[in-house]
Amino acid sequence: MCETLTQDQHRLHASARRQHERQIVVALLNTRITLLKQQVLELETAIRALIRSDDMLREPFDLLTSVPGFGLITAASVLAETDGFAVLETGKQRAAHAGIAPAPFQSGTSVHGRGRISKTGNAHLRRSAYLAALSVTRNKGHLGDFYRRLRANGKPPKAALIALGHKLLRTGLAVVRSGQPFSETYVKPA
Question: What is the model's pTM?
């Protein structure tokens, strides 16, 4: 629904640029955009109500939304796709399940091929991690610095985003498992 809303907003913008666009088209697009915005708000309210009414979802949701990049929609979709982080044990398993774990390319004597992500996992989870990473890149903090450091070291933008998404999924799992909200100043115990 959000994608449709964005598409219609772009159509409206393009229609406003055309001199000969019919007023009926612009009016219909404005009506549709208003309706979609209202429906998005209704869905977000329903998601919040569902999470607040379910004891099994409330605490993991609150913990997950404490991690930068995880908003209402991203946290809800990650919890839905991972069954509340209940099935898989480790961050590596979670990243592999999402299909964002590095997959080296080796075949016989050609061991110097570039590695890629596996893409064999859950596409919805991979997309959520990617979008969370995309939003974190605009923030200050150690997660945004991680992305900028990867870029400064020569990583392509998408590879750096995937690495950040991988880190965010692992951080989300750790936060939910520990029961402690995310903290920028957290130091791993020795």
Answer: 0.76
